[in-house]
Automatic annotation (TrEMBL):
Domain of life: Bacteria
Presence of the UniProt keyword Plastid in the record: no
Transmembrane segments: 42-64, 70-90, 95-113, 119-139, 146-167, 198-220, 232-251, 257-276, 306-325, 345-374
Location of this chain's protein in the cell: Cell membrane
Name of the protein: Xylose transport system permease protein XylH
CDD domains: TM_PBP1_transp_AraH_like
Provenance organism: Phytohabitans aurantiacus
Free-text function comment from the UniProt entry: Part of the binding-protein-dependent transport system for D-xylose. Probably responsible for the translocation of the substrate across the membrane.
Membrane topology: Multi-pass membrane protein
Region spans: Disordered: 1-21
InterPro entries, alphabetized: ABC_transp_permease (IPR001851)
Alphabetical keyword list: Cell inner membrane, Cell membrane, Membrane, Sugar transport, Transmembrane, Transmembrane helix, Transport
């Protein structure tokens, strides 16, 4: 028999085959451009929108005070967007989060303002109510089998009505100063700085470094498993661009009132949920359910259990958003949270989530939310009336979804 043992040259070629196949798969310039555009286009769009409104507002948009206001005014929408993108990745939707924000804030206000409970007890109660609401939704969706659209539409009406009952159709205020600091407080002066807060810059630098390391490790892992990645120059450009934007914003915050406490909360949530969705079994199962439900079930994924916890998590984040919003407003109102669910859904889709599920990232949803925030704030500074603002935001959402569908059709045509 003749030997079939490969030569050294053949072994070398075989070892390099995965990498070669990887690069061959994206060698077509048009395919490469479309893939890179999908992965990094949201960051380019974010910077472009900031630049546009900076010019249109004569630089007011990027003033230290206004950047601080953007963070404070839209933080609760970004918290909701984190939970909403996970729901959408799994192929569901949640229309009730605005009502849940109102209900959790109302419960906290009744306990703290009317019944003189400690401020922290109100926060714990608000989050607990949010978790209970999420479990309610999860039960009907996961174990009864009612579509999430119907369950959460019913929840939107149900929990708005409960909010009116809890508040007895009146507004409650004010909260204690400790409660208000969650959404209105700042950390500054911890390590000094001449005319600026050095602590804010230090935290921002650490965040940028962590983002770069995490992105590089993720890139290496994808290459190792022969998954397509963006070109290395584009990856470096994206990291530098994100780093420059973050440090610029940090510089402006450092020259205003320092680091907002709510920004720290948001950063912790983004980091934690980024790790959960990208590095845990639960995260992979969420993507599997949204990408191909039948395949996920055949692979042994406990679909009912995962769907249940997806909605519990959404309720938890709605409770957190309720605390932040009531802290920011220094009270609870029957109409609180109105249309918040649409802002959160828009943020997820603008950030790259797919309508059919299976696609999306926490970071993308947050950037999508920031795009909406910058657009809203910029148009307010320009004196644009509310009706025109709604038209513009609606068109942006429509274009984002159309872009996703266009990409899917192109991908199907090239197979």
């Amino acid at each position: 028999m003749t030997s079939t043992k490969p030569t050294a040259a053949e072994e070398t070629a075989s070892e390099s085959a995965p990498a070669a196949a990887l690069h061959t798969g994206i060698s077509d310039p048009r395919t490469l451009i479309m893939r890179n555009l999908r992965q990094s286009g949201i960051y380019v769009a974010f910077v472009a929108i900031i630049a546009l409104f900076a010019v249109l507002t004569d630089g007011v948009l990027l003033s230290p005070g206004n950047i601080t206001n953007i963070v404070l005014q839209y933080s609760y929408i970004l918290v909701l967007a984190i939970g909403m993108v996970i729901v959408i990745i799994a192929g569901h939707i949640d229309l009730s989060v605005g009502s849940v924000v109102a209900l959790t804030g109302a419960v906290s206000a009744v306990l703290v303002i009317q019944q003189d409970y400690p401020w922290w007890a109100g926060m714990v109660a608000a989050v607990a109510v949010g978790v209970a609401v999420g479990a309610w939704h999860g039960f009907w969706v996961a174990y009864v089998g009612i579509p999430a659209f119907i369950v959460t539409l019913a929840g939107m009406l149900l929990f708005r009505g409960l909010t009116l009952q809890v508040l007895d159709n009146i507004s409650l205020s004010p909260f204690p100063s400790e409660y208000q600091k969650v959404a209105n407080g700042f950390l500054n002066g911890l390590i000094g700085g001449q005319g600026y807060d050095a602590f804010t810059l230090l935290i921002a630098a650490i965040a940028v470094g962590g983002y770069a390391v995490f992105g590089f490790r993720t890139r290496l892992a994808r290459i190792r498993y022969q998954q397509p990645v963006e070109s290395f120059p584009l990856f470096v450009t994206k990291v530098l661009l994100v780093g420059a934007v973050v440090m610029y914003f940090a510089w402006q915050l450092a020259h205003a009132r320092g680091l907002p406490i709510v920004l720290i909360i948001l950063a912790v949530l983004v980091l934690a949920y980024g790790l959960v969705t990208q590095r845990t079994v639960f995260g992979r199962q969420v993507y599997a359910i949204g990408g191909n439900l039948s395949a996920a079930m055949l692979s042994g994924v406990k679909v009912k259990k995962v769907n249940f916890w997806i909605f519990v998590n959404m309720g938890f984040l709605a409770g957190v958003a309720g605390v932040i919003y009531s802290s920011r407003a220094n009270g609870a109102q029957p109409a609180a949270g109105n249309m918040f669910e649409l802002d959160a859904i828009a943020a997820a889709f603008i950030g790259g989530a797919a309508v059919a599920g299976g696609v999306g990232t926490v970071q993308g949803a947050v950037v999508g939310g920031l795009i909406m925030a910058v657009m809203s704030n910029g148009m307010q500074l320009m004196g644009v009336d509310q009706s025109t603002q709604s038209v513009v935001k609606g068109l942006v959402l429509l274009v984002a979804v159309a872009f996703d569908i266009y990409n899917k059709r192109r991908a199907g045509a090239t197979r």
